[in-house]
Structures are given as structure tokens and as C-alpha cells.
Write a structure and sequence with these properties.
Helices cover 31% and strands 19% of the residues. The chain is built from 14 helices and 16 strands.
Length: 445
């Protein structure tokens, strides 16, 4: 892992493109966001539950963190387990097929839950009650009642929980938050987020990694504990598609909502602090990848925030990748556009401080702002993660907070907001109606 670099507020603004331009952008980086190494030399013991496509990446990341050590691995497929044990290469690491036995290991301080979503709630709650801190992959869970139960267990047992939205550990998100909080955009009444993908193989049809589309030769009932995979889900005959492609089926996940919408929406929540929407409508269907999947390959959602005079729209499809993943904040004075770095575009009829804009344009290394007018296409500010902002990784932030007991960047409160937001769109889609969030009763109505 790259060595940590300490950064002061003075140095941050000195190296910041916005700060150097003399713009009064208020820093939104808290103490836990700016890179900081813990003073303690104690090693945090980690147990990983689920070492499939995502879990093996987490395992390799932990191996690069000097103040954390993998002490237990749990999986119900021997192929995944053998690969993980080989990667760790430590004979002292214990292996488990039942996560509850891993939770009994007193040498384990925290767990990473990277299983299919239908196991997240039970595993997170059991981990909290066992005194373990929790890093759990998104989506937090599949139902509102499960999300509330996780919050209760985490807070009741005073545990640290980090949800796997790595965007919150991105310098780009931090810079976007600065720009938004500066007020340069003016009132923002609409946000548009999207995910467009295309590949030879349909989304979620992978096996041991995101680039492996071939079924492992040992993937059979002898090497996979099918009943443990199902858990409380409806009983079905052994099915490799459901085991490996679980995001395609409602029994185990929330489709695009929990996998992709949640990432993009969480970025907006990180930047703007929008919280849970008042209402939601959703539509979509299986329009191209016509296999046995239940979850749509096209997904459109509208969230309304009448108390904030704001609407957020989301669109996703799996048969065209031209626009990739994008985020656009539409303000009266300017537009903030993200996806491949950040860009700020002026609005022709918005208010502006011309001296400020002149200084900002000078930072673009020869690229000048276009004269005010309709359809201005040249950004007056561009950010592509230039040196100056130093961040710990999302996993390192979790490890640091396990030690310090501070809130991690994607802590339990925002994790709950993410879960409700994703689940609202699934309910709206399935019930073909607009759903409303009752913030008093904490229920979808």
C-alpha cells in the first residue's frame, strides 16, 4: 500500500487548484477523511466472510495494510476457500464453512462481509452481537426491517460499521463536495446520475473474478454447500446460475438498485447530504439480456425531495456504454459534471463573479473559459485527481476507525439511508406505484 502522507489544512489549500486560485471554497474534509495514520502499533485481526468475486479483492487489499492481519476465512465453496488460503499464505489462518464459528474466534476484531446480499443482515447483526466491527459490501440489505435491525444491533453494541461505497474515499468526491459547498453552482434543483455498460457477456454473469466468464470445473454440489447459500431464501434445487449470478434474482439481491444505483446515489449523498427522498417512482425491464434473470437490465428511477426543492433521476442499461457512469449537478449558475474527473460549466444567465472566474480559468494550464453565452462547451474548471489530496483507502479508513472508534466515512447512519433509497426503488418497481418515505414511522408507505 502507498505510504501515508500527512497533510495540513494550510498545505491542502496551497496544493488545491481551487485554493491556489484564491477562491474561498470551504474545506469539507474532516479529520477522519484527510489521511492520518493511527499511532498505535496494535494489529487489527480480520475475518473475511465470503471470498468470491468481491471478497478476494478485499482479502488482497487487507494483505497490503500493515496494521491489519487476516486471521480467519469463511466460504461455502471450496474453490473460493482454497484460492483465498493460497493468497494469504499463512498456516495460522483458520478456515471456516460456518461464519458463526469464525465469529467465536477471539483473535478476530472485525469482519468483512462480502456475501450475497440476502445474508448481509444476519451476518452483520450476529457480528455486532459477537463484539466484532463490520465492513459490509453494498447494498446494506434487502428490506427496510432488516436495515433497521442492523442499525439497532450496530448502535446497541457500539460497533463500527463501514459500508463498501469506495467513492467516499475518493479525492474526486471530496473536491466535488468543496465545489458544491462553495455555492458557485447556485441553487441546485436537479441531479442526474447514470450507469451505462456494455460487454460481450451480460452483467453479473461472472465467476471467480469480474473477467472470468467460465464456470469452474469443481463447481458442483460436492464442493458447494447449497443449503448454506440459500439460508432463509426460498428452497430450490441446486442451481449454479443462482449461486454465481445471484444479483440476477430477487431472492438474493436488489438488482441494479443495490449494485449500481446505490453507488451513484451515495456519491450524491456524500456531496450534498440529501438523505432519504420523500417519494420514488421506478420503471424498467429485461429489454436486451433476455435470459432467465428476474432483475431488469434497464432501470429508471426518480426521487423527489420537495423540502429541498430537488429531484434526482437515475438511469441504467447494460447494452450501451457510451456515457459510462456520470453525475451531473444542475445549478442556476453552473453545472458540475463528474464521471471522468470533474468539470464545471457556466450557465449563460447565471450570476457570476468575473474576477473569480478569471482566476479559476488561469488554473487550467492554457485552457481558457469560453465567453458567456448559450451552449458554452468548455469547462471553466477541470479536476482529474491531480496531486495534492491524499486519502487513505476505504478499507484503511475502516481499520483506522476500528482502532480509534470514530465514525468511518460510510458509517451506519448513511448506510441506512443508502439501503432505504435502493429498496424504495425496488418496491416502487414491483408495485408499479409511487412510494413515499414516512420519516416519522421510518416506513415506506
Amino acid at each position: 500500500m502507498p505510504s501515508d502522507k500527512k497533510i495540513t489544512r494550510r498545505r491542502f489549500f496551497k496544493k488545491s487548484a481551487l485554493g491556489t486560485a484564491g477562491i474561498a471554497f470551504a474545506s469539507t474534509l474532516g479529520a477522519s477523511t484527510v489521511l492520518a495514520s493511527p499511532n498505535s502499533s496494535d494489529t487489527i485481526g480480520i475475518g473475511i466472510i465470503g471470498v468470491g468475486v468481491r471478497g478476494i479483492e478485499h482479502l488482497r487489499e487487507v494483505l497490503r495494510i500493515p496494521d491489519a492481519q487476516i486471521r480467519g476465512i469463511c466460504d461455502i465453496y471450496t474453490g473460493h476457500m482454497e484460492r483465498a488460503l493460497k493468497a494469504v499464505n499463512n498456516p495460522d489462518v483458520k478456515s471456516y464453512t460456518d461464519y458463526r464459528n469464525l465469529l467465536e474466534n477471539r483473535d478476530i476484531d472485525a469482519v468483512i462481509v462480502a456475501t450475497p446480499d440476502h445474508w448481509h443482515a444476519k451476518m452483520a447483526i450476529d457480528a455486532a452481537e459477537a463484539g466484532k466491527d463490520i465492513y459490509v459490501e453494498k447494498c446494506l440489505t434487502r428490506t427496510i426491517s432488516e436495515a433497521k435491525a442492523i442499525v439497532k444491533a450496530v448502535k446497541g453494541n457500539k460497533r463500527v460499521l463501514q459500508l463498501g461505497h469506495q467513492g467516499r474515499s475518493s479525492p474526486t468526491n471530496a473536491r466535488a463536495k468543496e465545489i458544491y459547498n462553495s455555492g458557485i453552482l447556485g441553487p441546485v434543483t436537479m441531479v442526474r446520475i447514470s450507469t451505462f455498460r456494455n460487454s460481450e457477456i451480460a452483467q453479473w454473469r461472472w465467476y471467480s473474478s469480474y473477467s472470468n466468464f467460465n464456470i469452474p470445473s469443481d463447481a458442483d454440489p460436492e464442493h458447494i454447500d447449497w443449503n448454506k447459500f440459500l439460508g432463509d431464501a426460498p428452497k430450490r434445487a441446486f442451481d449454479l446460475r443462482r449461486f454465481f449470478h445471484w444479483r440476477c434474482y430477487w431472492d438474493y439481491g436488489t438488482g441494479i438498485a443495490g449494485d449500481l444505483l446505490s453507488h451513484q446515489w451515495d456519491a450524491v449523498n456524500d456531496i450534498m447530504g440529501v438523505g432519504i427522498a420523500k417519494t420514488c417512482v421506478a420503471s424498467g425491464g429485461v429489454y436486451y439480456w433476455d435470459d432467465d434473470r428476474e432483475a431488469p437490465d434497464v432501470w429508471n428511477v426518480i426521487y423527489e425531495y420537495p423540502d429541498k426543492n430537488l429531484a434526482i433521476t437515475y438511469s441504467c442499461e447494460f447494452q450501451n456504454s457510451h456515457y459510462g457512469s456520470e453525475l451531473q449537478l444542475f445549478g442556476k449558475n453552473a453545472t458540475l459534471e463528474g464521471g471522468r474527473g470533474l468539470r464545471v460549466f457556466l450557465e449563460p444567465y447565471g450570476e457570476r463573479d468575473r474576477e473569480m472566474l478569471k482566476k479559476l480559468a488561469e488554473r487550467q494550464k492554457g485552457e481558457k473559459a469560453e465567453a458567456p453565452g448559450r451552449g458554452a462547451a468548455i469547462p471553466i474548471y477541470t479536476y482529474t485527481e491531480e496531486p495534492g489530496l491524499y486519502f487513505t483507502s476505504h478499507m484503511q479508513n475502516f481499520i483506522d476507525c476500528v482502532r480509534s472508534r470514530e465514525k468511518p466515512r460510510c458509517h451506519i447512519d448513511v448506510a441506512f439511508e443508502e439501503a432505504v433509497t435502493a429498496i424504495m426503488s425496488v418496491i416502487a418497481y414491483k408495485e408499479k406505484r409511487q412510494v413515499t418515505w414516512d420519516s416519522v414511522r421510518q416506513e415506506v408507505i
